Amino acid sequence: MSDSPAQIIVGSAVLVVATGFLIFAGQATGFGSSRAGYELSASFRSAEGITVGSDVRLAGVKIGSVTRMALNTQTFFADTEMTLFDGIQLPDDSAITIASEGLLGGNFVEVSPGGSLSNFQAGAEIEDTQGAVSLISLLMKFVSGSGAE
């Protein structure tokens, strides 16, 4: 049984489109990205919405990504490591927050630079952190009236 030329063309087109989707997905998730950088760590009370691969942003621009997350069984905080791109030097009094892109958007780590003249060294820990704020708990407080004074 021989394949018709139309079947061969359609099959080839499907393979090309599937390959394009795989390449796009790999670029969007940063898979295979080998951009050099240095690591910083931080502990969050709540790292809800952040996963390995989440963006680290400064002024809305991606400057790195989250590379590891684990629960610290001593403090019950989420220990997080992130890699920042080489050339991005943060003052050592900078703060980081887990922020949201909006009601339906994802979360990311937002850096608020400090004013110190010295910078974080590779492997340093950012101590000024603010965890994720749960939108559901805020809505529940608003609806129930608790917290209103």
UniProtKB/TrEMBL annotation:
* Record bears the keyword RNA-binding: no
- A Pfam family matched in the record: MlaD
Keywords from the named record: Membrane, Transmembrane, Transmembrane helix
InterPro entries in the record: ABC_MlaD (IPR030970), Mce/MlaD (IPR003399), MlaD_Phospholipid_Transporter (IPR052336)
Taxonomic superkingdom: Bacteria
Sequence intervals crossing the membrane: 6-25
Record's protein name: Outer membrane lipid asymmetry maintenance protein MlaD
Every copy of the Mce/MlaD domain together lies at 37-114
In Gene Ontology terms, what is a biological process of this protein? phospholipid transport
Q: Look up keyword Cell cycle and say if it applies.
A: no
